[in-house]
Amino acid sequence: MIYMDNSATTQPDPEVVQVMTDVMVNVFGNPSSLHDLGGKAERLLTQARKAIAHTLGVSPRSLVFTSGGTEANNLALKGVALQYQRRGRHFITTQVEHAAVFEVCRQLEQMGWEVTYLPVDEKGRVQPKDVEAAIRNDTVLVSVMHVNNEVGTVQPIPEIGRIVKKHPKVFFHVDAIQSFGKLPVRPQDWGVDLMSLSGHKFHGPKGVGCLYVREGVKLSPQLVGGGQEEGYRSGTQNVPGIAGLAKAAVLAEQKRRETAVRLSHWKQEMIRELAAKLANVQINGDTSTEGGSPHILSLSFPGLKSEVIVHSLEEQGVYVSSKSACSSKGEQPSRVLKAMGLDDQTAIGSIRISMGAQTTDEDVHQCMKALTKVIPPLQRMMKGASK
Ligand SMILES: Cc1ncc(COP(=O)(O)O)c(C=O)c1O
Question: Which of 251, 271, 291 is at the close of a domain?
């Protein structure tokens, strides 16, 4: 199997699996229990918090463990909305956010909040000046993702951070779920108040993630109960998952530079080779090494259907995806590609190839070989059918 769908999820690192197994077997106590077994679990949480905080250059007290990226985004947005509603009810985000931000904004709109969805250019990038122009007296939050999950475009987070900082009553949330482990992620240097991470995108476990909450920011908790995680997120913590998340974060950060150089080299090679060998292929997003993440490559084959390409590649043992995993079963063309100006036909014929720390040279070359094998006959068939 050639797994090239790492933006959907990654295979857990064997060291992560080992840590989680050890914790499940040996440290099954409830971290809130007073006895020694509870104390051991609590110490594991403390160590995990410290380790993850170190990878981000933040204080351990600023991390809230969640059930993954979706919950972290929900907690950030709804937590600010409800906590600061007297200050204002206006949010700013972009047209290309993941559903875990976009749909929360839609839900807030139904509850009476106003949301500005900023447009992006043809590479999928939002302009900082548009963020500046959209900020109003009643704006409470700006939410912009770091790396787009469908096309890999990197957003100008430090520039936006500087703009938001000029407005002390506006918070800045960043969904860094696709960038951690591939690009430097430094919330404090960038003026970020809230930032979401998810373990399964960097060879950690599924169903566990965290939200960075800058000290001084208050959130209205979305899950109430026993008051765990400083009251921000009640529920007995997923101790094995959190231990696995910390192990994965440390490994990802240790390997980050090497991973980025390797994947970036392969991405550029795929761009060159596929453009040379395939007819009528469009490469989406920012394809430069500075402006695009090293691991995501979005390709469009106008006239073809992405599901057909995905299944044809699967027959060759190569796994890729159409748009984002959560929306790939929908019939509609991708909202993100449409926001970048692609027409329906081009958007419908798009696939995403995404690499990870475990991707090998062999995977990349087998993937290119499979693409050059399956695409031309599909294009010929489509041409024949449209005559
Ligand atoms: C950019 C982005 N945000 C949020 C999420 C949701 O994260 P999770 O799957 O951990 O809920 C994803 C996952 O696809 C993502 O790519």
Answer: 251
CA distance 95 to 106: 12
Q: Is the CB of 209 under 6 A from ligand 1?
A: yes
Query: Whole-angstrom Cα distance, residue 108 to residue 130?
Result: 22
148 lines ligand 1 (CB under 6 A): no
- Tell me the pLDDT tens digit for each residue of 329-347: 556 899 999 999 999 999 9
Domain of residue 194 covers 14-251
Residues 216 and 84 in one domain: yes
Of ligand 1's atoms, which has the minimum distance to the CA of residue 68? 10
Q: Which of 178, 242, 298 to mutate to test the pocket of ligand 1 (most atoms within 8 A of CB)?
A: 178
What domain count does the chain have? 2
Q: Kindly report the CATH number assigned to the domain that includes residue 157.
A: 3.40.640.10
Please tell me if the CB atom of residue 97 comes closer than 6 angstroms to any atom of ligand 1: no
Q: How far apart are CA 116 and CA 135, in angstroms?
A: 9
Burial label for 275, CB within 10 Å (0-12, 13-18, 19+), is middle
Our answer to whether residue 326 is catalytic in this structure is yes
Q: What is the pLDDT of residues 54-93, one digit of tens each?
A: 999 999 999 999 999 999 999 999 999 999 999 999 999 9
Residues 6+ apart with CB under 8 A from 285: 123, 124, 148, 150, 151, 152, 153, 292, 296, 298, 340
State the chain's maximal CA–CA distance in angstroms: 76
- Contact by Cβ (8 Å): 213, 178: no
Domain co-membership, 289 together with 213: no
